[in-house]
Design brief:
single chain; mainly alpha; 16 helices; 4 strands
């Protein structure tokens, strides 16, 4: 390359020499024609030489100046490139060796321009993102994403800033939605409570534009607290209104207020606003004044309510007699107050033991159903029902028979838990539940024995009258003698008359054998049972009927042992004819 440059320089020198020679020749001819003297020609030749030297010097100076500028540009671009590379967090450019000054300058300048453009773009993005972020931070009252000031953000920082802005936008949308929903609730609560915004915060929530509300964490917490406070006030007023209405209804019932008057008041005072609460309180006060004016009637109403509560709580007569004021005829305000307090105590007792009392009530209902089924079993007219009623009745009877001991166990278990928890006995009709159940069974068996004895006495008296008067028996001899006699045969007296033997008649229950139904086992509860079951205690369930038997014909009676301690498996009509 050096040889080529030297050759080019020699060629250029030859061309310059040839051009100078030709130019000097032309100048010589011109000077000849003009007639310029030799001395003047020397001066002119010096001028030409001076001009040529000055021109060449000028050209050299310009090129040297260019070289200097290029070197300065290389230095400046190198410094700028180093600075921008650090700001952009990119590797510093390392130029190749052997590059000319011009090529190096161009390469450095190009890279500086490229990095400067990237820096400008990043700063522009940062400015735009910062503007969006600042708006969200102002709305949410949060801290902006930190990027050191007067620095160029890296691509990673810009990406994190975008993610931060996206998170803020999502949070703002969520808070805005919560704010709008809560604002509607607050306005509804204020309207229901007849309240107006008092504090500046409440006015900001209710009255100001929705976009102006600062969705900061503190404001959102205060918003939820305000909503919860108003909701609690509303719930308290609802509960208070319900309690006041119960008091009003109770007073109305005791004062026997007309239904039309009640309906008119309720129509004008619905809801739970302060105005309605005031009206309810005024009505309670008015009713209390009427109560004082009608103490006797009110006390009698309280006594009726006390009686109902006694029955629901299964209080014994002895427990009821302890409330001596119940029998007082001195109708005063003190007596009225005492009755009010007694009602409150009984209600509290019932509410505290509601579950157990409901179990006892269920047992009572099943017990009454069982007694009703036995009563029907003794009614001969039940066989007139040919519509399948007997089968349905038998199903229900078996269901009651199955449920009664289960409910009894449930009551006993609930009472046991109550007594273990409270350390106090739970009484039903003044005694433990199992004793109460045993007493019911004993009472039931005694009533059965008394009824059986009454029927035997009535039948004996009827037979005695028939024998004395010679009247015709109600049944034919054939039908009568097909059964086991309930009395020993009468003997002819010495005076020729007939009458009952002096020995007492043996009572024997009489059972028809036409259709068999299993009646509930007459027994006390399992926990109260004293005698074990034996095969003789009940009859076979599927004993076949006698030939020719019918639903309305009782063909025979048979003696069975007395089973006062338990149920007997008998025909449904046998008890009525015993």
């Amino acid at each position: 390359m050096a040889t080529s440059s030297k050759s080019n320089a020699e060629t250029m020198a030859n061309e310059l020499a040839h051009s100078l020679e030709a130019t000097m020749g032309r100048l010589q001819n011109i000077w000849d024609e003009i007639g310029i003297m030799e001395e003047q020609r020397k001066d002119r030749r010096k001028v030409v030489l001076h001009h040529l030297q000055a021109l060449l010097e000028e050209m050299v100076a310009e090129e040297e100046n260019l070289r200097t500028r290029l070197l300065q540009s290389v230095e400046d671009c190198g410094k700028e490139l180093l600075k921008i590379s650090k700001e952009l967090h990119v590797p510093v450019y390392e130029p190749e060796e052997g590059l000319s000054i011009l090529t190096l300058e161009k390469e450095l300048r190009t890279r500086v321009d490229t990095l400067a453009k990237e820096k400008h773009d990043r700063m522009k993005q940062l400015s735009s993102l910062r503007e969006k972020e600042q708006q969200l931070c102002d709305a949410l009252c949060t801290t902006p994403f930190y990027i050191a000031p007067d620095t160029v953000p890296s691509n990673d920082q810009l990406a994190k800033l975008r993610q931060h802005i996206s998170t803020l936008q999502t949070e703002k949308n969520t808070r805005q939605e919560v704010f709008l929903e809560t604002k509607v609730k607050i306005i509804t609560f204020l309207d229901n409570l007849d309240l107006t915004p008092n504090s500046s915060f409440e006015r900001d929530v209710v009255c100001e534009d929705e976009e102006s509300f600062v969705l900061s964490s503190e404001n959102m917490a205060a918003l939820q607290a305000l909503c919860a406070e108003l909701e609690k006030k509303q719930n308290d007023l609802i509960a208070l209104a319900s309690d006041l209405r119960i008091q009003v209804t109770t007073l109305w019932d005791r004062l026997m207020i007309e239904q039309a008057e009640r309906d008119a008041f309720n129509k004008d005072n619905q809801g739970f606003k302060p105005r309605v609460l005031k009206a309810l309180r005024d009505e309670i006060e008015r009713c209390r004044e009427l109560k004082l004016q009608n103490i006797r009637r009110y006390v009698e109403g309280l006594r009726a309510e006390i009686t109902q509560l006694w029955n629901k709580c299964y209080f014994s007569q002895e427990q009821r007699n302890q409330f001596t004021e119940f029998f007082s005829d001195d109708f005063t305000e003190d007596l009225l107050e005492i009755h009010d307090q007694q009602v409150a105590r009984l209600k509290q007792y019932y509410d505290s033991n509601r579950d157990i009392l409901k179990f006892v009530e269920k047992w009572e209902d099943l017990w009454k159903k069982m007694l009703e089924f036995e009563r029907r079993a003794n009614d001969p007219s039940r066989y007139n029902n040919r519509g399948g009623g007997l089968l349905q009745e038998e199903k229900e009877r078996k269901k009651v028979h199955k449920l009664l001991p289960k409910v009894e166990e449930e009551v006993s278990r609930a009472i046991k838990e109550y007594e273990q928890k409270t350390g106090q006995p739970f009484l039903v009709d003044g005694c433990p539940f199992l004793d109460y159940v045993r007493a019911q069974w004993n009472k039931h068996n005694e009533e059965k024995e008394q009824e059986k004895h009454r029927r035997h006495l009535a039948k004996a008296k009827q037979l005695e009258e028939e024998q004395k008067n010679g009247s015709k028996p109600a049944t034919t001899p054939k039908r009568r003698f097909l059964t086991t006699p309930t009395k020993t045969p009468t003997k002819r007296k010495m005076d020729g008359t007939f009458g009952p033997s002096p020995s007492p008649a043996k009572k024997t229950p009489m059972h028809h054998s036409s259709v068999m139904f299993a009646s509930p086992l007459h027994r006390p509860p399992r926990s109260c049972k004293k005698t074990p079951k034996t095969p003789g205690n009940r009859l076979p369930k599927n004993r076949p009927p006698l030939p020719g038997s019918g639903l309305r014909k009782a063909l025979a009676e048979r003696n069975t042992p007395d089973r006062s301690h338990g149920f007997s498996t008998s025909t449904l009509s046998g008890v009525s004819s015993a």
